[in-house]
């Protein structure tokens, strides 16, 4: 009632409303709305309705927002006078208020949602959305789920995958038409609508009034905004402008759809109500604006080539078209209009329509129907016009989403689908014109896939709206616009037209959406049945398919190379597959049962008609035009596939659907032409056509195409062969392959059609084709499972395969509904039956393997099928690869030692319908060919190969296997006079023909041939003549004549002159006109049969006379119970034996004849010395053997050369080759270290003026900074709660310590108390090769001039080592040192420690004590400076400058000794964090620490420390005046010595000494520092324990103070330390917070000893490493628990051979230079004076955490999905957007945008920036959307690979397959190892520059 009233109110002409005054406008919207709602709720609501209409008229008037001038045309172009103004905002506000009827809009939304009865999810998404597809739950193959529904449902164990949506889609959860209910998620498990309350009437009442006006307003905007694009200007800009203006309105509608079912049903009413539409849009009424908009609408309709039915007369259809037709331009005049009078004034659509006058017209059932399909549109509702504009505006995303969001409403779905179908032709036209056809295609499919996947709906629309007619017509119409004349066969008179593959329509796949819809609806049985029953449709469809028949014709270039290689073949293959083959597979899937026979008959009938038309159109008789080939014969293939289906599934009688013989002959020609052309292409006869022709040959057999192309072709040929005369067929094959002339007994011949160099491969091609034709059973009786198995075996035999590549390579039945879905049960079960899984392995080189499947042994043994392999190989080398693998298997399993031939395999039995195929093997023509070839091989004629012999024997064996009936022995002679007096063989059965002797043959030979002379002699002897008489005339044979004769026969038979008399053959050989070589006839004496030839062949192959001995003579059993295995391994000899045995088995006569021949033992035919070719065969093995030996010798020589080269490249003098450049003590007579330059090859010492250098790579590293104090690595955060904070990393702790020291102590002193380089430290590594520095400079010059540089930048000094190609970026000069000197230095002296301490102090004070004086600028010192500069520049400034005063020398000093520290610490980590393994580890082999130390020492000595401050004093002397420090308060104090880092002190002391260092000085320094270290350990221990423990220890220790070795007892020392420190305030603040630091364990002497040892161990390890590098001493290996004592011995802290019974005590290593108690109290005093003021910090600084665990990357979760789901939607913390390419750092867990411009800072993208901050230039990122890891190293990056693999051990880069992925721990370990060992640069090969853009 309300609706009707509203309609009435709208209808009548409105009384003009008085304009409300301004205050009236400002009336409270809510109040107005409430008032109106009340008014409308009354029973008589006429007044309320009118009031509302008036208000809406005013608010929603389309005049105001878009048009500014009265004359609307120009204004509309401007797109609406100034942006989305306040008016639109206002209008939207009003609408919201009115809908809510005075309440709040949000409350209204919530209220409506409560009534949502929808049980469907229906979530619509756009491109790039991540969705799921579960094949187990899907009914339709297009089924998809949103992530939420997928995870809420239960899909464990299902076959599902995740995918990125290409075109957009919608979630099907809850829709039982598309998926099984078991897969629904918890929310959508069928809500029954009973429990949803009924919607109260007044809730949505206002919506019913307001929405029609709102939608009409929107349509008016669309009408206003649209302007016909001018011919040349693309109008996208204008359209986009309009769309931007309308964004808020459409979004508002979209929000309404999301309110749920209740609101959707209101919207459906509004959109489909025809009355409303009529009233509002008819443009009657006096509203000028409405009128104008209606006019624009009509113009738009007209310009689209559509008519509005009423106005037929006004807008005539025959308007002149704007575009001229391409064909007319080419000058073909002709009729216009192709489909009746289909063409209207559409600019682009006329191309194909003119000028094809002679072509057969396409007769559709009635022209008016088509007219209406293509041209008439009448809109009756808002929905229809909305869709019209959506199409006109080229499917804007917002509109599409709105239209799709409505789909859960069933009524709407039907209405919308019908509307969509109604507009189908219009969609096609718009698509063709579109400039952005790709985007548009995606949007179209986004809609159509939702509509047509539903079978019920598709059926309804097919019945009610002629869906099939429309689709077929539209497709036909679309293709007609790009037809050209076919040049196949008869170029001048051809009437056939084909699509032009160069046109955009085909090249860009523009037809794709329409074809995909067609395939989609054909997958529904009910629809497909209608199609198959409708004869008119089938005719039209065959007509459509014929457009593709013979497209993309190739003509062989015979003279020069084609200058432009067209790539149109991609388009052609795609078009045949998508537009022809896939619909065919769709139809075939419904022809599976007997009841569907009728359908097959229909298709076959119209297919044959179309083929007949095609043959007529191209004027085809019986000879194909030479040098032409097209790979596209879709009509043939339709015919073949329906035949195959008919026999296999429908039990149809094959003969009932076959045409007559003549048609079969025609049918066979073109597929055979393709097979011959394949052989020609592989023989390089098409090489002038460029690479693309090879591409076509490969695509034709490639896995996605083969079962729609080559398989049907071969099947069709098999059918033809089984029904045609076998002699005709065989001779056709050899003629097509152009090898007829080769098949002569003569040793020389002339081939008129083929060059000699191609003969051999063409002959191989012909024989191979015959073998395939006769042994392939794909369509002749194999079951689906057998086919799958055979395909799989063939692929696995070529190469091991990954699971996904197998899925890809095994031809699927392309229609997804066929039931053999990839991943289905049968695939997996067959795979596990034929293959073993090889888990992914890691090669140390870092190349990562995938999980592979490899054939089981029994597959090689019994199933390897070379025929299938040849059929399926895209590259010829794969056949060889399969044979090699087969050979290897046989050798390995000991089955056959030599070179095996392809094995002969028994075939599955033929289906009875195709029995005729085997007649090919029993026809005289084939026997003559086989005989001739055997003879030629035996006589060593040229151009024959082992392959030919192999195929010949294969064919003979096939013939014996398939001989018809067992022949009776007393046969032959009695069967009446021979029909044909000059035939070679008596009958057609191979078994009997094998023993038939052929005596003489007449051949035509060139006059020069040797036979000519021989013959003239022979013929004089009476004997030979008489024998000629006896045997009848000599045999002659001409294949071509034979074929002609048969063809004539067949033609005659069909024209009923059935006389069985055969015209005698002409012996003249048919040859190409114009080439008549001088031939003469000669008669050859042969006197052989096939059997005798085989036996001689056996002798020849084995190289022995009489090698063949019939096995049954010894063992008669063989004949009675023959055990012929199904499968035979072996070479030619075994093949011959097998054949002879089979021949003997099949007939006693054969057996007798074989025995006779063997008795005669004829020598090989020509009684001359061994011919060259025989020699070849004999020598082959010998020669192979020799070649092998030669090769081995060469290899050995090469290896030894390489070895000596490597030795010279390394350091020659080193005793074992693994420590190059260490100065060794082995040979004192050599005075200096000698280095080899790998560039100039000279060796010599490094000198001042010509220094040698080590090739090194300098890189900044933060690996050390990532150490933490717990063993478990941190986990990667996968929820909001888990976050990683870097407080506990080594780098953070050291930073805090340094800043604490800098707060309270003098800066310069602080910088000596610690080391830096935990973050951004410089790590130096070398490959161990040396070069002269001047050679290096010239090498760099040459690299700079070399343009082809990959991966590294020479300007940054990067290069690869000239010898081993390892990446490097600097050269470290080798310090000139002599070995003898070092011997002296290492001799232990017996000086006391006091003397040594003095010497050390003096040496440190003498700056000049450097052998190379700094003052003299030598080349060496320059190089040392430059390398120091390189080292500094390797890391960023922030990692070098820690001083408060920038640029202070202390900074450089700190940096330099820290470089040494970094390298030592890293080496320690590479050794696993301790030195238990001992020896020179791998890192040691290539260590450059020695050279590095020289460079650092040289520079350190430039900054001599003021002797005042030298910590050495504090360590070794007692300072007298204790009060000096208190004196000046304002200056900050020095850092107390107990706060110093002992390892840093060690490095400072050693680098301050003149080099080379003496061993005893080194030991002295270590001893002194150990005392300090030990004291620190005691202090830290005392701080750690609680008050009671302290007093107890103080007490016990004091008792022992006066014993003899008090200074070496930790108890005494500890008690002393405690008593000294108690004087200060260190222990006083035992407040509450202190309890946290107290460890709860009770300290036992053992635990204290362990604590002290652990405290000192890091220092001992570093010191031992240092000693190892400086003095070249080996490190001892040891158990972990004795590491401390062993290292102490090694360092000389303990007397050697210190072995005591009682447990080891660390204190026994102490060697105090001054009385212990004095020096300790001096050190403690400094602490006390500091803790006076800062007790807290004083205590914190004392407890150093020295036990860092090894660094690790973050621990990743088991399943990749957990990472993906959390991160792929996570917003970036910087720009708060969801990044397009999110990534996460695997070192610290930071989330970053890869390539994101949003987070760019000073031209650095976020990943690069993070790699600098987190890893000092090295970043390891996991790309979330690709599952791969990317490494950034400085200015380069590389893809590392993935650490997540699927269940089959494969990566899934870019998540293309979307299968579940699991962590591969081994791979992750490899990654971590490369990170820790800094070897990314060396192991990964593919680096590229990232230009800061990652």
Number of helices: 75
User: What overall form do the CA principal axes indicate?
Assistant: flat
Average pLDDT, to the nearest integer?
Answer: 78
| Cα-to-Cα separation, first versus last residue | 64 Å
Proportion of beta-strand residues: 5-15%
Instruction: State the strand order across the main sheet.
Output: 24-23-25-26-27-30
User: Count the strands?
Assistant: 30
Q: What does it look like?
A:
The chain has 1894 residues and is an alpha+beta fold. 49% of the residues lie in helices and 6% in strands. The protein has a six-stranded antiparallel beta sheet. α25 runs parallel beside α28 and α59 packs antiparallel against α61. The radius of gyration is 47 Å and the shape is flat. The two termini are 64 Å apart. The relative contact order is 0.04.
Which key phrases capture this entry?
about 1900 residues, alpha+beta, six-stranded antiparallel β-sheet, three-stranded antiparallel β-sheet, 75 helices, 30 strands, flat, disordered N terminus
Question: How do the strands and helices of this protein lay out in sequence?
Answer:
Blueprint: H1 2-11, H2 22-25, H3 29-41, H4 46-59, H5 63-66, H6 72-77, H7 86-100, H8 105-113, E1 124-125, E2 130-134, E3 145-146, H9 147-152, E4 160-164, E5 169-170, H10 205-225, H11 236-257, H12 261-272, H13 274-281, H14 288-303, H15 326-329, H16 367-375, H17 382-392, H18 397-405, H19 410-422, H20 424-433, H21 437-452, H22 455-465, H23 467-480, E6 483-485, E7 497-499, H24 504-507, H25 512-522, H26 525-533, H27 535-546, E8 554-555, H28 568-588, H29 597-617, E9 628-629, H30 634-648, H31 661-682, H32 691-701, H33 710-723, H34 726-736, H35 756-775, H36 784-798, H37 803-809, H38 825-834, E10 835-838, E11 852-855, H39 857-862, H40 866-872, H41 877-893, E12 904-905, H42 924-938, H43 946-961, H44 990-993, E13 998-1006, H45 1010-1020, H46 1022-1030, H47 1039-1054, E14 1079-1088, H48 1090-1102, H49 1117-1120, E15 1127-1128, H50 1132-1146, H51 1148-1160, H52 1172-1209, E16 1235-1236, E17 1243-1244, E18 1252-1261, H53 1290-1304, H54 1307-1313, E19 1321-1332, H55 1333-1345, E20 1359-1360, E21 1367-1368, E22 1370-1373, H56 1379-1386, H57 1393-1405, H58 1419-1434, ...
Helix pairs in contact: 1-4, 3-4, 3-7, 4-10, 7-8, 7-10, 10-11, 10-12, 10-17, 11-18, 18-21, 20-21, 20-23, 21-25, 23-27, 25-28, 27-29, 28-30, 29-30, 30-33, 31-33, 31-35, 34-47, 35-40, 35-43, 36-38, 36-40, 42-43, 42-48, 43-50, 48-50, 50-51, 57-65, 58-61, 59-61, 59-64, 59-68, 61-64, 64-65, 65-67, ...
